[in-house]
Amino acid sequence: MSKYIHVLIALMAFGLISSTSIAGPVYVYKNADSPDNKGVWGNTMPARAADTNSVQFKTSEKPDFDGNGTAVKVTFDLTQPPNWVGLVVPVQQDYWGEWQADGLDLTKAKKLIFWAKGTKGGEQIQVKASIATDKPYGDSAEIPIVSDWITLTKDWQKYEIAINNGSQLKRVITLFALIANEAHNPGGHIVFYVDEIYYELSN
């Protein structure tokens, strides 16, 4: 276990930084403006992605997967160096763990579940979470949650990522991240939708 993780656990033990326990499911995104939403959309990576407008999104796009609410529309331009981009959903706007703020206690999480579809089909994305592991008040996990590369279809599909490092998720600040690169998406421009993003907890 790294020195940073030891320090982070000690800070949480003394209450200097905190993690909020929540009964499941824990929604990153349910519908636009839902009080159940625990995530705030807007962080992009790498840093230059914001300057080149390589990441665009709308959190109130219709229709969603069941026709009863809203979904998130994501547009990636992967043609700009370094030819990959990411859209990250933290617990607080513009937060990467540089200052003290509450995280979420997801030690009981067993699955990260979401719905997604592409506009054309064939778009490839990767999903990550708990990625700010090197920040002073970042994620407590030593290893992020990372999915395999996912090939989207034109129809809504449900995706589940098994979580095997729940014991390390005492403090999570980056709840969800969407990653894509040009190598997996020839042409470099993709548009896709995501919806109903949540953590399923064990009893």
Task: Itemize the secondary structure elements and their pairings.
Blueprint: H1 3-13, E1 19-21, E2 26-29, E3 43-45, H2 48-51, E4 55-61, E5 71-77, E6 84-90, E7 103-105, E8 109-118, E9 124-129, E10 145-146, E11 150-151, E12 157-162, E13 174-181, E14 189-201
Parallel strand pairs: 1-7
Antiparallel strand pairs: 2-14, 3-6, 4-5, 5-14, 6-13, 8-12, 8-14, 9-10, 9-11, 9-13
Feature tags:
single chain; 203 residues; mainly beta; Jelly Rolls; six-stranded antiparallel sheet; 14 strands; 7% helix; globular; disordered N terminus
CATH architecture: Sandwich
End-to-end Cα distance: 28 Å
Number of domains: 1
Low-confidence stretches: 1-16
Corresponding CATH superfamily: Galactose-binding lectin
Task: Estimate the global geometry from the Cα principal axes.
Answer: globular
**Element order: H for helix, E for strand:** HEEEHEEEEEEEEEEE
Structural class: mainly beta
Amount of beta strand: 35-45%
- Using only C-alpha atoms, the radius of gyration works out to 17 Å
